[in-house]
Every structure is written in C-alpha cells, then in structure tokens.
Amino acid sequence: MTGLVFFIAIAAAAQNQPMAMNQGQMDRLDRNKNGAVDRSEYQAFMTSAFAGLDKNKDGSLNSDEVARVLNTQQFAATDVNSDGKVSQNEFLNRVMADFKAADRGGDGTLQ
Q1: Which CATH class is domain 3-103?
Q2: Mean pLDDT of the residues in the chain
Q3: Comparing 24 with 63, which gets the higher pLDDT?
Q4: Long-range pairs for 54-62: beta carbons < 8 A, 24 or more residues apart
Q5: Residues 6+ positions from 58 with CB-CB distance below 8 Å
Q6: Distances (CA, A) of 22 to 26, 89, 98
Q7: Which site from 33, 50, 55, 75 is most exposed, i.e. has the minimal number of CB atoms within 10 Å?
Q8: Kind of pairing, strands 109-110 and 86-87?
Q9: Are the C-beta atoms of 46 and 38 separated by less than 8 Å?
Q10: Interior CA angle at 98 toward 92 and 101, to 5°?
C-alpha cells in the first residue's frame, strides 16, 4: 500500500473535495493495467488502507490512529454517527463518495 495515495484520498474525502492523484499513483492502483482505476480496484485499495491504519485492530479508527492525516474537523466529518471512532463502513462510504465525485465521466473509473 502506498501511503501517499491513501493520504491524498482520505484528506480529500474528509474535506468533501475530489481527490487528485498523479499518474504514478494511478498506475499503482490500476491492478488490471487497463489504464483506469475502477471502483472495485479503488475500494480494494481503500479497504487495505483502512486495515493498515487500524493499528489496534479493533475494526475502527480512533483519532490517534489517523492524527497524521486528518485534523479534528476532518475526523468529525468522517465519523458520521459521532461515536468518536470511524468504522470501516463510515470510512468506505466517505472515500467511495470521493471516488464518485472524481469520476467525471460517470463510468465508474478514474483515468
């Protein structure tokens, strides 16, 4: 997992802004090498990224685990139910909404 791609995506998602990735980062996420990152490739990467951030392996992210990539406001925006932690569902919902916003062609891919 390349941390830089994840950090760009989670920070942008938490701010509800489309993500910006360079070509090298896109190439790393493009598992089938078809020149585009599709929804399933992005979701698989983000699922892996979540697992990597979940240092205590409790199935959720606390503010300490993401302090390097999210400020307090970004964390709160991702913690939809305000329980003080970000579940995998909250995390994936946020980053996949960002994917949808970045999918300018509406075809389920980023190119």
Answers
A1: mainly alpha
A2: 82
A3: 63
A4: 59/87, 59/88, 60/85, 60/86, 60/87, 60/88, 61/85, 61/86, 61/91, 62/86
A5: none
A6: 6, 27, 16
A7: 33
A8: unpaired
A9: no
A10: 140
Length of the chain: 111
Distance of alpha carbon 52 from alpha carbon 107, whole angstroms = 29
pLDDT at position 24: 76
Separation between Cα atoms, residue 77 and residue 45, nearest integer Å? 21
At residue 3 the predicted structure's pLDDT band, cuts being 50, 70 and 90, is very low
> What tens digit of pLDDT does each residue of 78-106 get?
999 999 999 999 999 988 888 888 888 99
* Strand 109-110 to 60-61 pairing: unpaired
First-to-final CA distance of the chain: 20
Q: What is the pLDDT of residue 1?
A: 36
Q: Which helix (H) or strand (E) is 34 found in, with range?
A: none
Per-residue confidence (pLDDT) for residue 48, from 0 to 100: 87
